[in-house]
Amino acid sequence: MGKFPAGKAEYLPISVDYEHPAETLRSVELHKLLDELKTLYHERILHIDQSGHTLKETLQRKVDVLQSFVCDLTEQNEVLIQTLEDEGRAAAAAARASSLHRELERRQSLALCPMPTDLAGTTATPARTREAQAEPHIHLKAHLLDYEAYVQQLKEASLSQQETQTKRQVPGVERV
Question: Which of 33, 38, 96, 109 has the fewest CB atoms within 10 Å, i.e. the most exposed one?
Answer without folding.
Answer: 109
